[in-house]
Amino acid sequence: MLYAQGISFDGAHMDLSFRDAGCWTTVSPEKGSPPSLWISLGDPEAGPAVQLGICPPVPQKIWLDTHYHATDQMRAVIQGGFQLQRKHMRPGDFGFQMAGIAYREGLVEGGEDPLWMFAIHGDRRGARSTTTRHDGSFELGEVAKDQLDRPVPSTDDPYWRDVPGGDRGVSALAVSQGRTVGGFHWCNFSESKDWQVITPGVQVCAALFGDAEVGPMILAIRADPDAKILPRHSAATEILIVPVAGSVAAGMSCLSVGDVRIIPASHGVDALVAGPAGANILYMIADRRAAADIVALDGRGDTMFDACRTFAKMLGDPI
Fold this sequence. Notes:
Blueprint: E1 2-4, E2 14-17, E3 25-26, E4 35-41, E5 49-55, E6 62-63, E7 66-69, E8 73-79, E9 82-84, E10 87-89, E11 93-97, E12 105-107, E13 115-121, E14 129-133, H1 142-149, E15 174-175, E16 179-181, E17 184-188, E18 196-199, E19 202-208, E20 217-223, E21 228-230, E22 233-234, E23 239-250, E24 253-256, E25 259-263, E26 268-269, E27 272-285, E28 295-296, H2 303-314
């Protein structure tokens, strides 16, 4: 499945950019509101919902109401700053959150750069939020509530009828590295010394979350300058690539910070090679079942794909 509000996908891949968000939808109030884009991938029922969000700098801290979601989540700050509970997330920070954990989130005051946020609801069925306390300084309007709560059009009512675990959801989060505190699992690309070395100059932190059978697998990859990350390959599900630092050559293209590339299922994914300054990237396999059957298209096997299969087995038991 591949769906995004207001965007048609056609061709071998779709390139999006935080630097060019004119076609993205907006969060209310409708005038002057920051752009946000929901993208649904993977399994048509329980696959992930990806959110790309931009927020301008603010003069004082802004909080949303305390709430929770009925699915595991993942967030990464690409630019700017973001407050999640007591954690001030900066570029290079990424983290996971178990389903049903109530939390506060907001914008950090005083920055000069707009916030670029990459986030994933692991199971789109649980993306709708449940507010537990009206303690925010920013009130979402009806447009925002509808967009945030239903990233995929749905006629099902009541909403929670088909969501496993109801409004609290069922967590299936498992991460290979990092630290867990109170339902949150924190990681950073600068803390990669304990990550698994896949090939020379390439280290990986892997995670499974969302639905326990068809949820996404995400690889946080730190690569040395000019390191060969992946050969040309194909998967039976969508692949999403997000550079977080440095740059990566993808075939004839160069993807840098702020770029997002989505490759439809069963299309060739260009070989990935880190740029001259190295690369930190997030690489998502939309449906974890496809991790077992990724095919190298240059006639040879690849240790990264072997690692994906190993991670899928190793992380089978949630944390």
